[in-house]
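for the recovery benchmark. tokens below, seq after
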């Protein structure tokens, strides 16, 4: 295994060059045109056997055939950036105004391209085929780009799929592994309550949408505290509360906008059903009417036990026991890698980026950045995982 580590470290100058190129020219979901062209060009330069472009829009799949016959495994990286103005003062700062790789996808693409280089160097060890999946639109919940990659048919023959995400909540270089639920389902709701305007001094002549909205927000908090198993996790967040036009007018309309995060389908179903019943009850009591649009986004990301065990073993072989963290509790952000794991075996892991003595900027922050020493680690882990899966 030291051979893989040393080979990955030797790629660092190229990996840094690639990562900074991606970071300087980020593109948002469904606009990854130049990014996908670069990915395809890099893959051809590395000598992969086949490059498939324009999969689900701007998706790219590289194919590496091993020296021996065997199964098929996939490795995935996401390509899109976020609508955030970068605040870092670095030479590779984003040149695209208002767009930034604040979720680390530049590192994911670079890590997978590094894995491609390592796999091409080690074809003799590959018993089968590796598919390198560069996916667009991960950030575009509830649509997401993974479903289109699956629907393309190019991944029908894979036996498993693996991926990783840089993670500032773990120490630098540590690989966080967990079987079962790792990340949450993400749903988005919009509720509009229709009341009746009246003079603020005569509330009895109206139907106060502000009060009804406040009642709904407060009552919805009991869904988690009183209906979800205390050993389970769920979040109901109202991010927007809009109502009223003037201080002395009873508001005739209130709009609530928010998100629900859950780790299992039973809790997910219960919260949506409870929201609808609560809204009906408030309207029945007050005489108001209401509309609810409840959109189901990404499902919970649930790792397969055998695949989590495989990538954990691979990580230990590369980085030692001290290089692996057994994740105890899942996180409530979402990832559309979850759709792959609904149809295929596989595992998604976290790769820590927090340096000792430093308080890291969180994901989706305008100052998020990583120590580029993380790049060779991601490449080595992905490449060796593919080899280990095919050779098991």
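predicted aa per position
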């Amino acid at each position: 295994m030291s051979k893989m580590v040393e080979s990955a470290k030797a790629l660092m100058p190229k990996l840094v060059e690639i990562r900074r190129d991606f970071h300087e020219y980020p593109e948002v979901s469904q606009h990854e045109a130049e990014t996908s062209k670069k990915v395809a060009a890099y893959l051809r330069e590395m000598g992969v056997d086949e490059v498939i472009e324009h999969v689900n829009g701007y998706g790219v799949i590289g194919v590496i055939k091993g020296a021996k016959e065997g199964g098929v495994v996939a490795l995935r990286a996401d390509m899109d950036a976020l609508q955030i103005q970068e605040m870092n003062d670095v030479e590779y700062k984003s040149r695209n105004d208002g767009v930034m790789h604040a979720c680390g996808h530049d590192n994911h693409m670079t890590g997978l391209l590094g894995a491609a280089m390592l796999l091409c160097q080690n074809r003799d060890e590959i018993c089968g085929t590796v598919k390198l999946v560069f996916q667009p639109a991960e950030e575009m919940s509830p649509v997401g780009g993974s479903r289109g990659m699956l629907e393309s048919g190019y991944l029908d023959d894979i036996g498993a799929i693996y991926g990783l995400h840089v993670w500032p909540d773990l120490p630098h270089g540590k690989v966080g592994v967990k079987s079962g639920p790792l990340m949450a389902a993400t749903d988005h709701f919009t509720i509009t309550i229709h009341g009746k305007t009246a003079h603020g001094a005569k509330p009895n002549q109206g139907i106060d949408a502000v009060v009804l909205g406040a009642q709904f927000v407060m009552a919805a908090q009991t869904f988690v505290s009183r209906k979800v198993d205390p050993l389970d996790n769920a979040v109901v967040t109202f991010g927007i509360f809009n109502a009223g036009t003037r201080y002395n007018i009873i508001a005739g309309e209130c709009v609530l906008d928010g998100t629900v995060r859950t780790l299992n389908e039973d809790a997910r179903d219960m919260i949506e059903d409870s929201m609808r019943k609560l809204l009906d009850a408030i309207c029945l009591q007050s005489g108001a009417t209401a509309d609810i649009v409840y959109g189901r986004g990404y499902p919970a990301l649930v790792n397969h036990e055998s695949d989590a065990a495989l990538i954990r073993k691979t990580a230990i072989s590369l980085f030692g026991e001290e290089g692996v963290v057994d994740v105890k509790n899942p996180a409530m952000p979402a990832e559309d890698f979850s759709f792959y794991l609904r149809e295929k075996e596989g595992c998604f892991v976290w790769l820590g980026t927090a340096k000792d003595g430093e308080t890291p900027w969180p994901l989706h922050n305008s100052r998020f950045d990583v120590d580029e020493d993380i790049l060779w680690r991601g490449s080595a882990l992905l490449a060796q995982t593919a080899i280990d899966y095919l050779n098991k």
